[in-house]
Write a structure and sequence with these properties.
Layout lengths: L1 E3 L2 H12 L5 H8 L3 H13 L19 E9 L4 H11 L5 E6 L6 E7 L2 H12 L5 E8 L17 E3 L3
Antiparallel strand pairs: 1-6, 2-4, 2-5, 3-4
Length: about 160
Amino acid sequence: MLSLLHNDDIKILQLLQHDARMTNKEIADKLGKTITPVYERIKKLEAEGYIDRYVALLNKDKIGKALTAFTHVQLKEHSQPVLKAFEKEVVKIPEVMECYHMTGQYDFLLKVAIQDMKEYQDFMMNKLAVIANIGTVQSFFVLTQSKQETAFTLSASVRRKVGK
């Protein structure tokens, strides 16, 4: 059974998406609530899986990961064991920031963060190309980034599962 998220839950999620370091007191002040109910709502949102984790977003230029590549990978075979084996191996590669199993011509889309083309070549030759059953790889390099958003737009229609 599904029910709508409470309006306060949506406001809490919006606030935390933009600043996960906000204290319960700061959130309570913004909502016109006391600290205890805000604390309890956040704990419930965490327990129900609405909040996966809290992270710090780093400046990729300052940490030497200024080059981003989107890499399409087409596998030779498409059986479940082959697909699962590829996923299991590719997620171990530290340069792979995101991995998506896709529809269309290519099976996977990888977001790869590297310092430069030399590091990308090392990634391709020594990490990606050694995974079994890779057929075709096509890479696209980011020239400029116009938008990067980590916060989802939430509305009153967000639903939560209730009971079984």
